[in-house]
Every structure is written in C-alpha cells, then in structure tokens.
Queue: 2 jobs
Job 1
Amino acid sequence: MSTAERVVNVFPVDPNLEPTQQKKPLHNRWHPEIPPVAQVKVNSVFRVEMIDWTGGQIKNNDSAEDMKTVNLARCHHLSGPFAVVDERGQPAQPGDLLMVEICDLGALPGHEWGYTGIFDRENGGGFLTEHFPKASKAIWDFEGIYASSRHIPGVRFAGIIHPGIVGTAPSKELLDIWNERERQLVEQGTEKMTLASVLHCRPMALLPEPKYALLGSIDPKSADFRRIASEAARTIPGRENGGNCDIKNLSRGSRVYLPVFVPGANFSIGDLHFSQGDGEVSFCGAIEMSGYAILRCQIIRQGMDRYLSPMGPTKLHVNPIFEVGPLEPRYSEYLVFEGVSVDEYGRQHYLDASVAYKRAVLNCIYYFAKFGYSPEQIYLLLSCCPCEGRISGIVDVPNACATLAVPTAIFEIDVRPKVSPTPNVRVVQVTLPQCSYDGNLATFPSR
C-alpha cells in the first residue's frame, strides 16, 4: 500500500464556504470542553485541511476595505481538536508530551494565493500601528515554492509553508490561570506599563468574548455553549499549550513537542502561512493562506516531568519544544539593520528588546523606501519575506541590540549602498490597496 493510500483526510474543508458551513465544525477558542472532531492513532499518517485564519473575510482583489473592516473576534479558525491514542487505544494523558510531526504542507488546488495586511489602527493595529495606521493589503500568487505580488513589484522569494498555530487544549486550571493573569494586565491599564508608551497595539489582551465564538460541535443554543463561550480563551497569543507561536521555520520535517493537559491532548492546527518574516510585524503579517498539513503523532508518556521545567508557581507553567525541519530557502547575502533601545522620540529605555527591534524594523523600512517603495509596501514585505530577526545583545546596559537581516536576492534590483553618486535604481511604482484612517488616535508624523 502506498503512502498516499494510507493518508486519511480527517478534516476536509472548502475555502469557498463560510466557516459555519464546513463539513466538520471549526473552533476559534481554547477550552477543555470543546469535543474532539476525530481520533488519531500514534504512527498513523493523516491529512488536516485548514481555511485561512479570518475564515475567508479577505478576498483576492485590489481593495483594502475588507482589511479595514475585518471581524477579528471571529479569529483564528482552527481545525480540530484531535484526540490522540496509542497502539492499544489508550489516550494521551495530562503530564505526557504530544509529538506532532509535520510531514508535508501545501495549498489547496485552486487556492494558490495568499495575502498580507496592515490592520486599521483601531481594528487590530500592529507592531508599528502609530506609524502605519491605514488598513492596507498585498495579494501574493504562488508559483511552486515562490511568491510574488502585483502590489509589491520587483520582489520574488521562496516561501517556507508553516502553521502559525499548533496547540493542545488547556485544562480548566490552566485556562483559569490564563484568564486571571490577562485580566489583571488589562485592569492595570497602559499608565502602569512603561512599554505601552512605545508599543501601541491595543487592547493589552483579548479577554473571553462569547460573541462570534465557535466551539466545534457544541450546540450554540445550549446553556453549555453560553457558559463555555464566556470562559474560553482567545487564540491570538501563544501560551503554555503552544498555540499562536508563529515560528516561521516550523515547516516540513519539523516536530512539535506539546504539553498534554487533558485526556487525548485534543490538539488543533491552523493559521497556515506560505511565508513569514521573524516577528510577523504587521500582525496580519505572514502570507496568510488556506491549505493542508500531513501529520503524524507520538505520545511521550510522563514527558512533561522528563523534559520540561516549570517556570512559574505550578507544574502547568511550561512551554513546548520545537524541532525545526531541514528545509529552508538558501539565501546567503543579507543587508542587516540594527536597532537599539532608544525610541523614535529619542528616549532611552533599559535593555528593552522590543524597542530595539522596532527601531531595526523602522531603519529597514525607510532604507528600502529610498529605492521607490512606499513605507507601507516594505512594512508588508518585512512581515512576510524570509527575513531573520535576532536579539544580538541583551546585557550591555543600557541598550539592548536587535537586528533584522533581509536577503538581497529577493529584489530584482541591487539594493546595496553604492560608492557612486548616481541615483539609486528605483522600482516601478504601483498602487498599494489602502484605506483612509478615520480614527482619532495620535499617529507618528509621516516622513
């Protein structure tokens, strides 16, 4: 029997249908009582299909209106949960580790395209939202392993397809820990958070929101649904269960070692990306896509005690381990941009890697703008191309040092600094789909 004949599609989707019309129910929250949609046995190879993270709200067109009005309370749309059992039919148990191996990834036939976006400052925002408050969008077409965009000319690069989200269901105890600590953060407000004066993405955390919750096969009219929806955690941040970690090298051949908190593990997957830059800085920053994953699982009994070390008050305060696969684009020449923890107003911050990375990204954006690109085009590009972000120094007081390395081969023109006084070669300018910003929040003065 061939491998293709042995692969069972346990979660088919149709990207042309609404999330609530799919053959199997999706979910967009984390909760231990969301029932599994299928059971998979260790060592079996199975296929999981995924719609894009917004559930089809963003269209392949030349308007950014859908990016401006996107309903983020509906996100992410996840495939699963899947209960995992061993050869004897015994489920994974709390305290085990679940190993999820990514055997293959790809686009669904007829859907070989994706998008990168900037959210409106008052509806999602992003890492540089006060600099780029207008909703914008770029559409990417896939040509085998390569991506190019009609909205960002003169650029073509190889992608590393990967899921932004792989995670297990939390226990009720862990869910309560999440909700309490994130509630406290919101209640503290921005005035007590030094970094909030520099990073303007709001809100500070996304607390449980029953409206627009999808909870798998739980009847939306039931009392259980109302209770669970009021408790269930949003899927936006990564947490102890894995979740939305957005690790761009988590591609073919990778393995994820996830803590198990409930019987069966009940793992889910989604938020598929064709490519992403380190940090996914525009928030909707990867090349978002629908597609499929071919997976295989193993259970490591008592793996949490054997391999993980809690960093917190309970044994639940652990994090997954990721084993990156062997495949990635082979770029060898980079321009590297430095940032230190001095913000764009000239204020000194103490060893703040977020401020340093922000400065590195801004330095990079305005460098490439000198070659004819708009700053928004480069902001989108840095969110999705295979650029490498690093914390280069974290001990040399008072400045943290972060760097962003961009492969020069992705550009059709030579973008390196020149000794010659002749003007830079500039790309042919095209119009980027963009909306006006109609809000009242302060924005950084444009250059």
Job 2
Amino acid sequence: MHKFAGAMLIFWPLAWGLTMSARSVSMPVTTYAFNLTYGLVFATLLRSAGCIWNDILDRKFDRQVERTKHRPIADGRISVFGAVIFLFSHLVALVALMWPFNHLAWKIGLITVFPLPGIYPFMKRVTYWPQAWLGVAMNMVALLVCSVVQDQVTPAAVALLSACWSWTLYYDTIYACQDKRDDVKAGVKSTAILFGRHIKIVLAFFAVLLTASLAIAGHLNKQGPAFYALTVGGAALHLGNQLKKLDVDNVRSCLVIFNENGYMFGSIVWAGLFVDYLQG
C-alpha cells in the first residue's frame, strides 16, 4: 500500500474504460462514482495478489537483486505458506467482487484474475518480452469494465486495450532498467536488457503507439473535443517530457518516471475522458 503507483497502473485502464462506457450509456454521475470506487478496490486487490504470487515464485531471483533482496519472502520474514494463505484471501475477495457481474464479464474477470497474472512470473524465465504478457495481464480490466457496463466488448475497448498494452511496455521497460545489471547475473529476462543501447528509441515508439491508439479509441467511441485536447494532447506532451528527463542508467530517474506514470500520466488521460463524460 505504501507503493501505490503499481495499483494505480491497473486502476487507470479500468477508470479510462469505465469513463468511456459511462459516456456511451449516459451513466448517472452517482452510479459512475460508485463504480469508480468499486474499480479502485478491485484494482488494489488484483495488484496485491499479483505481487504476492510474483514474490513467491521469484524469491530466489529476488535474493540476487539489490533492489529486491529485502522483500519479505526473499529475506525470510514471511513464509511461503503464509504468503499462499494471504494470496488465497485476496483471490476470494476478488471472486466476491466479480460475483454480481453478467456472464460475459464473469468469464473475462476469471481470465483477468487467474491465468493472465498467474503465468506472468514464468515469462521472464523464457523470453525477453515478459512485458508483452504483462501488458495484457495488467490491462484486461479495460475489456472487463466495458463488458460489465455494456454487456459486450466494443471496438473502442479493444483500441483502448492496445493503448494500455503500449503503455505497459513503455513504463515497465523503464521500471526494469533499475535492475539491468543484477537481472543479467540472475538470468532474468526483460525488454530493458533486450533493447540495450536503443532503449530510448524503442520507448519513443511505444509512446507514439500509445498516443495513436488513444486517438483511435476516442474516434471509435465518438469522444468530443475535450478528449482530444486533454487526453491525447496532454498524453503526448507528458510522454515527450518524460523521455526528455529520463536517464535509463540512473536508478532514481527510472523510479521517478515510473511513478509519474502511475500518478500523473494516468490522471491526465482520465481528466479529458471525465470532462467529455460530463459534457456527454
């Protein structure tokens, strides 16, 4: 909870998708506020469950990396058995939150909670593209919330998922730059290692893809001028500023930019969507 940016990285795609759907169905503001709060609780539990599962499986890797060697499972403060019990409590709560969902949303929800985050920790052992899998796992909530509100997955929601996938590739590659040297020694694979000295060029590519996908999602959802000015324009300017400031070889710089994505970038994108929803 004291590192809440990670939960926000799941919450924002959910909030963006909810706000787009709310505009499409003319959802009352009180209902929207309730659903947004519901989504924040869901995203927080989902992120925490993913962290527990990841830390159980990665405990041996974590002991070899300076930044992670003092995680509570890695350094023995919490037993694996205790962590499994804690994980189970999260999964029960998540299933309870999904219980009222319609049939389509229930199926998407089960995929979102179980196989996608469940498989992710294994990907960094077999491919340099674990962030590609993470991009799906973190952002299926965009499809989930659309199916909850509209009982279907719209083309706009798919385009939003594409934008969120690009965003995850962008911010999690930056996050992985913190551990490049230790990850090579430990045998952990990531896009930060794969892209090497070309990393900033590739990050710029994902930033462009993210911005373009947001614009496409907005077009498909018939968004108004506020969306294009605040969401698309604001996103482009903020990402450009991030890339200008980022030093991929400086751990502190990488963490600062990662946290900016969790708090500032997500809120910029949401602000345009929210104004558009209110103007509906």
